[in-house]
Each structure stands twice: as C-alpha cells, then as structure tokens.
Amino acid sequence: MNTLVLGFLAVGAMGGPSTDERATACLTGSVGSSYQREPGSCWSDEVGCVYESATCHYDASRYDCELAPACWAGATCVPCNLDHCEVCGPDTRCELCLPGYRPGEDGGCVPGQPDLPHCVGTSSEELIELNVRVHLMRDQAWVHASGAEMTTDHISPEAVARVLLPEVNRIWAPARIRWRLESVREEQVVRTATYERDKAHVLATGRNSMGRADPSRLPALHRMMDERTRATPEDAGAGMSLFHVYLFPFIGNTSQGNAMRGFDFNTVVGVWSNKHKRHRPMQAYCAPQRRSLTEPWDAFQVGSVGQSVAHELGHVLGLRHDRCQPAGACLMQSNGYPLNDAQICTSRRVAEQRRTAK
C-alpha cells in the first residue's frame, strides 16, 4: 500500500505522466484527433488535467491526461485565477468556492454561504466538515465476459485529490457539507482463499427480474478489502467523522455504487460500468465502459464517478432513492446532481452526529 502525507492530506504515490508532461499536453494540445465516444476511440475520461492555477477541459468534459497523446488534441486551458475559487468552469465562472464564500452573479466568489432550507432538528446552519478516506483498489485487469479489461490504474491519487473530491464537494455545497480528504490509499486487492471465486462472481452478477442488484456480490467485495484500513462498526457510529470510499474496477453488471450499509458503510464504487446500457436485452451483458471522474451536469449520460461517490455518501448520510421534488433530475434518483430541501435537511441531521471534531 502506497501513501504519502502532505500536511493534512495524504495521497498515494503517482503513476503515469509527470506533472510537466501533463502541463505541456494541456497547454499545447499539439496532436490532432477528433473527440468521439465510440468504443476503441479517444474517450475524454477520468483524470482531468490540473496544473497550478489552470484546469484543462476537453470539449464539454474534463480532460484526460492518462490516455494516448492523440486524445490530448484541442485541449483548452481555462485560467482559474478567481479569488477564493477552488474549481473553475469552462466559462471561467467559479463552480466551487472556498468555505465562507459562494458564487456571485459575476461568476466570482463573494462572502457568504449557499442558502439553506429551514431544517427542523438541526442545531445550526454552519458548514459541516466530514473526513473521507479513498481507497484505490489495485489489481491485475479484471476481464469481463465481453472482453473488456478493467483496472483502476488510470486514476492517480493526485486525480482523487484535485478532481474527484472537488467535484463531490461541488455537489454537496448546497447542503453546506464539505468532505475533507483524510488520505488516498493505493491498496492491492486482498487475495483470500476465495479471491478467484469472489472476483468471478462479481464479474457475473447482475439484476434480477425486479431490477434489484444481486446483494451476494457485496460480501465478496468486502473480503477484498484490507481489514487493517477499512471501516469498523465503531467508525459508523455517532461522533465518528471518517467515511470510507473504495474505488474498484467493477462492482457488478448494471451497478455503479453501493453504500454497503451491512458492511460498516465501506462504500464501493465501480470506475467501469455498463449500467447505462441496462435498457438493452440482458442475455449477454454489454461491455462496461470507463467512466469519467466528472461530467457536465447539464449533459447527464452515463453518470460520473464523482456523481456515484456523492450519491453513495448520501446513503451513508441517511438518504434513500427519493423521487425528485419538484420533478426532474436529482442526485438520489441517480439521474442528476441537485439535492432537494428534504434531502439537505436529512443529510445535515446525520452529518451533525458524525461531524469533524473541532
């Protein structure tokens, strides 16, 4: 297991292109290629080029610096020099302001917090900070029946810190809940005596005729976690603010995440998924595709890894698959990003019980 500590934040050792190589790719976009979403082509995926004060976007999605150089074509670096801004959008408007600030009408950040609904049973309206540990589960490629070879190798600890967690915080900002990255841990999947059988079972499981995901995959995934670093029953109790998110290559056909309520909330998210293809006949499951860490909120298609992490953390904070009120797309219906007033109030009540000690 690789872990580096940088102040409060701990991130695992990086792989892939160096910072300078990524910066050069982002800043020049020197190789020509068109953006496509078809299998086998360049997929603007996962990592997102972040270099000093600039975030590179590729078309309408985050830019992937881990793919072949041909996928770097056309990168546009958008300066993010706005005061008190953590994440800039492609139009140079702030998408996520630092604590104590909110987006202003001019696209910058102004003092204040997002408006909150009146929540009965909550003690205050202040920012609630909770700690999260992200586990990058490393293993040899998991081979799907379709032939897709799946790993988490394309996601670096730096990408978790600079792209994934800011996206999760952007989603949760309306609830004034902020996730602090306690650490990113690169961990080898634990190979117990049942490892091969467990992996084969996860790769084969799907949904029943009622549309419910097979729960038998969950203990198999739990056995692959290092018991020395995963959550314990005590971690899931009141007054404990450390939450655990495991990024696995794949967690089952037509599935993207599970809060693991019966396993001390050792939340799992698959970075490869074929859930978006579940409308097709299921005699043979379609090939999973690698999911982006982020995506444009107004162009929801597959659902990003960031959206799945935020959604599953919502379950840990007491939310269920509520219908959107008012009708539309929302985070807990797995078809969008907004939180409604009832969800904000419920999540804040649970978060207050597990908030970071001051």
Q: Any chance you could write out the topology, listing elements then pairs?
A:
Layout: E1 4-6, E2 9-11, H1 19-28, E3 49-51, E4 54-58, E5 61-62, E6 76-79, E7 85-88, E8 94-97, E9 101-103, E10 109-111, E11 128-138, E12 142-143, E13 149-150, H2 157-172, E14 177-188, H3 195-204, H4 217-223, E15 242-248, E16 257-258, E17 266-270, E18 272-273, E19 289-290, H5 305-316, H6 341-353
Parallel strand pairs: 11-14, 11-15, 15-17
Antiparallel strand pairs: 1-2, 3-4, 4-5, 4-6, 7-8, 9-10, 12-13, 16-17, 18-19
Helix pairs in contact: 2-5, 3-4
Descriptive notes:
With 358 residues, this protein is of the alpha+beta class. It folds into 2 domains: 4-111, no CATH class; 128-353, Collagenase (Catalytic Domain). It is 19% helix and 22% strand. The chain has 6 helices and 19 strands. It has helices at residues 19-28, 157-172, 195-204, 217-223, 305-316, 341-353, and strands spanning 4-6, 9-11, 49-51, 54-58, 61-62, 76-79, 85-88, 94-97, 101-103, 109-111, 128-138, 142-143, 149-150, 177-188, 242-248, 257-258, 266-270, 272-273, 289-290. The strands form 7 sheets. A 5-stranded mixed sheet has the order 14-11-15-17-16, sandwiched between helices. Strands 3, 4, 5 and 6 form a 4-stranded antiparallel sheet that branches. Helix 2 packs across helix 5. The chain is globular, with a radius of gyration of 20 Å. The chain starts with a strand and ends in a 5-residue tail after the last helix.
